Amino acid sequence: GQQVMQIPQYQHVQEGEDFTTYCNSSTTLSNIQWYKQRPGGHPVFLIQLVKSGEVKKQKRLTFQFGEAKKNSSLHITATQTTDVGTYFCAENTGTASKLTFGTGTRLQVTL
Amino acid sequence: DAGITQSPRHKVTETGTPVTLRCHQTENHRYMYWYRQDPGHGLRLIHYSYGVKDTDKGEVSDGYSVSRSKTEDFLLTLESATSSQTSVYFCAISPGTGNTEAFFGQGTRLTVV
Prior knowledge:
The complex is a heterodimer of chains A (111) and B (113). Chain A has 111 residues and is mainly β. Chain A has strands at residues 4-7, 10-14, 19-25, 32-37, 43-49, 55-58, 61-65, 71-76, 85-93, 98-101, 105-110. Chain A is globular and about 45 Å long. Chain B is 0% helix and 58% strand. At the A-B interface, strand 5, strand 9 and strand 10 of A face strand 4, strand 5, strand 9 and strand 10 of B.
């Protein structure tokens, strides 16, 4: 079946540094969603990208969908301790909106 | 947060015993899902429901069954718990078809000893 890989698995940055996580699929994605999960918490929806080459921004977060719709990235500018958590990409498929998740990237931010 | 309640939040059970996890929503959303989360695997779909008494299998459905007798409740049953089913289980809901976001419950941490 389809596999969605994320890299890196883990990243530790100093507050103020930038961070990027990449999501790569072996097949063309119909869309990509991004979720954030705080430690001990549940996944929370951040954004959805649908169009080839789409770029969306939310304050310090920039989301991109690749031209071939096989990859996506999330970039955080000037990280803050509130950015700590695991970031997941996921494809939303079918009429039942089932999600196929990537493996996740855990971000640790220290002062 | 969307109105989703999972119970119990934590459970320890013995190998071979049946276990039922409950998900209750107050959003009247049509779709409900059970995912499990394990290190290195992200979240994987176990079963989902697209209406009362309408359910289907997900990626990792072996050893699990589900039931949905009311719109608001979706039950996940481990018929005979095994140590490989030790995991964090998340219920999720979604309002409709196509490209819609999912809302997740707080999760249930299940340990099978």
